């Protein structure tokens, strides 16, 4: 999720409370933002759908890649989970041009991901059919075998694939979720943050803010300092009341015995319903043990670090999860996610979206066994800084607009520029 940088960047004056929340407490304020974009008109769909300007035969004319490293707004300039501490989140933004339109895709990771896009992937898609993103996906996937397909390679491929699908939807004048084989028109969300270095008051404020927005489920990070988790879970439950679902995420910090101990306590004392990566997602046998021996009403989840289809197949074949997770900006973009969704459906297991709400809200409308989307504090604030057109939850769900083509977002270059660590501003 995160990237580190050595350059000095302008601080982001953003609230730790959920973006979009109205309540102000403990001196926390929300930074105002300008709305300058690269393209003057976000481009509402105003006429009949169909190819725009003779989209048939349109070729990809060019690829641009940018990276922006945005400091956290956590205590002492950092955020922590069960296994990691970070000071910034780096977004890699890809633009693909063709037919007078520009598609936008992105991922989160190290700035080296931008270099992978520029050196390995941009030459492969330039000149390709702009209306055939899946064909270009297979071309990229085959070509990067020796460069390293999982990890950075998968994230780079994901960003380009999302941009290609966004371009196709813009060329056809369709919102992306309507171009995809959508089976839903909205994606339920859960508020996610609750970092392990938050004081109890800050934790309570953030969680209560999501509840005030009508979000019926929230998640906190645990297990970095297990001795403090009981007090943090109590503070969380008190803040959200008895009717909001409480989730916990250990980020793989615990041993099997520790995880089983905490699973039983979490379910019994705080009515926790979802325990994510109690042990490493590589430990499929350990996850299966927790499913078999843990409380029946506590679901075990993993999958956010799946990069290739085999990663998800391993979790499903081991019976390791009650609910599978996938990140559209890691698992191969839109094309890769559709494959993961089919695999989950074949195993009759629900699929939950990991973060990246601007892209996930469209992509997961096409997931048959959709559960929900992680409305992650870091990604929400970064996307609201970088993009115009981001969605806000209504009634606990994100509803993609029907009147904007593609993902419906535009890069806010003026606001993004102070955080640039790769590439050059267009124009």
UniProtKB/TrEMBL annotation:
Q: Which residues form the Mandelate racemase/muconate lactonizing enzyme C-terminal domain?
A: 200-297
- Region annotation (Disordered) maps to 1-57
Keywords assigned: Magnesium, Metal-binding
Q: Which SMART domains match?
A: MR_MLE
KW Mitochondrion (keyword) present: no
InterPro entries for the chain: Enolase-like_C_sf, Enolase-like_N, Enolase_C-like, Mandelate_racemase_C, Mandelate_racemase_N_dom, RHMD-like
Question: Which Pfam families does the protein's record reference?
Answer: MR_MLE_C (PF13378), MR_MLE_N (PF02746)
The keyword Coiled coil belongs to this UniProt entry's keyword annotation: no
Q: Name one GO molecular function term.
A: magnesium ion binding
GO annotation, biological process: carbohydrate catabolic process
Q: Needs which cofactor?
A: Mg(2+)
Q: What is this protein called?
A: Mandelate racemase
What is the scientific name of the source organism?
Answer: Streptomyces reniochalinae
The organism that produces this protein has a lineage beginning with:
Bacteria, Bacillati, Actinomycetota, Actinomycetes, Kitasatosporales
């Amino acid at each position: 999720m995160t990237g580190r940088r050595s350059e000095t960047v302008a601080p982001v004056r953003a609230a730790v409370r959920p973006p979009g929340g109205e309540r102000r407490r403990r001196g926390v304020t929300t930074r105002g933002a300008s709305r300058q974009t690269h393209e003057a008109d976000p481009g509402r769909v105003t006429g009949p759908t169909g190819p725009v300007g003779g989209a048939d035969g349109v070729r990809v004319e060019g690829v641009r890649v940018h990276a922006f490293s945005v400091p956290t707004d956590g205590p002492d300039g950092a955020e922590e989970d069960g296994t990691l501490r970070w000071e910034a989140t780096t977004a890699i933004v890809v633009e693909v041009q063709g037919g007078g339109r520009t598609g936008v895709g992105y991922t989160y990771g190290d700035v080296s991901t931008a270099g992978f896009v520029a050196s390995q992937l941009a030459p492969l898609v330039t000149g390709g059919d702009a209306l055939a993103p899946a064909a270009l996906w297979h071309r990229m996937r085959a070509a990067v075998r020796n460069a390293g397909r999982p990890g950075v390679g998968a994230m780079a491929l994901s960003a380009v694939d999302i941009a290609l699908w966004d371009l196709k939807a813009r060329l056809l004048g369709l919102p992306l979720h309507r171009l995809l084989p959508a089976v839903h028109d909205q994606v339920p969300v859960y508020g996610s943050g609750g970092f392990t270095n938050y004081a109890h008051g800050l934790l309570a404020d953030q969680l209560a803010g999501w509840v005030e927005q009508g979000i019926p489920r929230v998640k906190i990070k645990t297990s970095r300092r297990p001795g403090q988790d009981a007090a943090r879970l109590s503070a969380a439950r008190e803040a959200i009341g008895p009717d909001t679902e409480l989730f916990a995420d250990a980020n793989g910090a615990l041993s099997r015995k520790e995880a089983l101990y905490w699973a039983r306590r979490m379910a019994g004392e705080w009515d926790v319903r979802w325990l994510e990566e109690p042990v490493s997602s590589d430990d499929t046998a350990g996850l299966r043990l927790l499913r078999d021996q843990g409380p029946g009403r506590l679901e075990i989840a993993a999958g956010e670090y799946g990069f290739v289809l085999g990663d998800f197949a391993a979790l499903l074949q081991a019976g390791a999860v009650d609910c599978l997770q996938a990140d559209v900006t890691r698992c191969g973009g839109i094309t890769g996610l559709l494959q993961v969704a089919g695999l989950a459906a074949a195993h009759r297991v629900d699929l939950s979206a990991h973060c990246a709400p601007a892209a996930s809200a469209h992509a997961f409308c096409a997931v048959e066994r959709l559960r929900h989307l992680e409305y992650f504090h870091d990604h929400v604030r970064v996307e609201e800084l970088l993009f115009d057109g981001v969605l806000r939850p209504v009634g606990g769900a994100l509803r993609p607009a029907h009147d904007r083509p593609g993902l419906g977002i535009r890069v806010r270059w003026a606001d993004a520029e102070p955080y640039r660590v790769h590439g050059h501003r267009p124009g």
